Amino acid sequence: MVFLRRRSLLLKTLLAVPVIWFFVAVLYSTSDKARGRGPLEPAAAPPPEAAAIRQEQHHAPGAPEPPEVELQPPVVVENQPDAPGFPEPEQENEISKKEEEDAGAMGVLPLPNGNNKYGEMGKPVVLPSNMSTGMKKLVDEGWQKNAFNQYVSDLISVRRSLPDPRDEWCKKEGRYQSSLPSTSVIICFHNEAWSVLLRTVHSVLDRSPAHMIHEVLLVDDFSDMDHLKTRLENYFTKYPKVKIIRAKKREGLIRARLLGAARATGKVLTYLDSHCECTTGWLEPLLDRIARNSTTVVCPVIDVIDDTTLEYHYRDSGGVNVGGFDWNLQFNWHSVPERERKRHENSAEPVWSPTMAGGLFSIDREFFERLGTYDNGFDIWGGENLELSFKTWMCGGTLEIVPCSHVGHIFRKRSPYKWRSGVNVLKKNSIRLAEVWLDDYSKYYYQRIGNDLVRIF
Ligand SMILES: *[C@@H]1O[C@H](CO)[C@@H](O)[C@H](O)[C@H]1NC(C)=O
Ligand SMILES: *[C@@H]1O[C@H](CO)[C@@H](O)[C@H](O)[C@H]1NC(C)=O
């Protein structure tokens, strides 16, 4: 008996060792995870595939890699709300409902706690670090869905004020032609956050001379979020210029843009992403260039709206960059070359740009058609910005960045959207771009991708 009992004790001990080891190991790995993912930084630690996604993101809505300097928002304490005054989760819905009702009738919506208007004049909104668990959860969900801080965006008026980022040169009497053409503004979106999409549209309507806005076409690329269905239609019934066009299946950026172009009837087409804010006087300098010569394709300066605080960052025209590309056929930014600088007396004058970032530009509708719009063999997204840039220059047009025109854009660090996998769409489009427009130079691209063309077709 004694022997037997001792043997079972020995057995138990032997069993216990791996079990304890297992528990310790599990404990370690979970506490590691908990440490690695703070509630406010889901985008700060991107997954390994982030590099690829980042490219997609910056290609897709045309959003460029922003110029590397001054992207870290300065620590601004102004407008930093005191925690107690912060609306708790329950109130959040009320705010957007109320905002929805008021936004049409009046200007900026005063928030419940009186005169603290979050994000006015483009100021950052910094959430308190001791948020309640419920609020933290909402903040996390907003990041998950959008890859920017939706919670903060929802706190900010959809008609918030912004600073006027223009140089004095831009505001001079008679700077622009007195009679400018009107434009169709085309905004494509897929599952965009309510407050961000509305802010984009209101910034267009509020900061453009009414007679220059022929219409605003919202092209819904098959969103499935509820707020983008009848709620969106109801909201915009008060705004007859705003029309909603629905894709019948997921089309991708390029075909969604073409869907918008096919319906547009303005003399000029102006494309914007669905997470932008236009500033005072953004439109006139763009339309002026096209009025002077309809083969001029123009891009505003793209300012950075911080993805965490929604702070609006801008620089004067001395910091303007032009678009280029590398032999991976990736868009990139360059400072204005010396020879181009010499062509101008003032740094606020429009500058020639080899390429465009893609998401934000104006083009004469007939000229766009003459260029054959986008190559309809291009799929979903990617490369279309270079295609249009090359065509513009090679078919008798001019591509310019217009420093007097500023539009803010939320730069995301990852794409929140899912795409069917298996096909490298960007690469397929880029090979098509190289074949059609690069002639002998295509070999440099093929070298970069290791002449790996086979799997694409
Ligand atoms: C957060 O901190 C502030 C000041 O430090 C305090 O007034 C507030 O009550 C705190 N809120 C919570 C939910 O703990
Ligand atoms: C418009 O610009 C193009 C390209 O620079 C030029 O060839 C053309 O002559 C210009 N047209 C007019 C009417 O100035």
Automatic annotation (TrEMBL):
Q: Which domain of life is it from?
A: Eukaryota
Low complexity composition-biased segments: 69-81
Matching InterPro entries: GalNAc-T, Glyco_trans_2-like, Nucleotide-diphossugar_trans
Q: Where is the Glycosyltransferase 2-like domain?
A: 184-367
Q: Where is the protein situated, by its record's location annotation?
A: Golgi apparatus membrane
Q: Name one GO molecular function term.
A: polypeptide N-acetylgalactosaminyltransferase activity
According to its UniProt record, which cofactors does this protein need? Mn(2+)
Record field: transmembrane: 9-28
Map out region (Disordered) in residue numbers.
34-107
Which biological pathway?
Protein modification; protein glycosylation
This protein's UniProt keywords = Disulfide bond, Glycosyltransferase, Golgi apparatus, Lectin, Manganese, Membrane, Metal-binding, Signal-anchor, Transferase, Transmembrane, Transmembrane helix
Main localisation, per the record? Golgi
Q: Name one GO biological process term.
A: protein O-linked glycosylation
Tell me yes or no: is Membrane among this UniProt entry's keywords: yes
A GO cellular component annotated for this chain's UniProt record is: Golgi membrane
Q: Which PANTHER family match?
A: N-ACETYLGALACTOSAMINYLTRANSFERASE, POLYPEPTIDE N-ACETYLGALACTOSAMINYLTRANSFERASE 9-RELATED
The record's family statement is: Belongs to the glycosyltransferase 2 family. GalNAc-T subfamily.
Please report the name of this protein according to its UniProt entry: Glycosyltransferase 2-like domain-containing protein
Protein source organism = Cloeon dipterum
What taxonomic ancestry is recorded? Eukaryota, Metazoa, Ecdysozoa, Arthropoda, Hexapoda
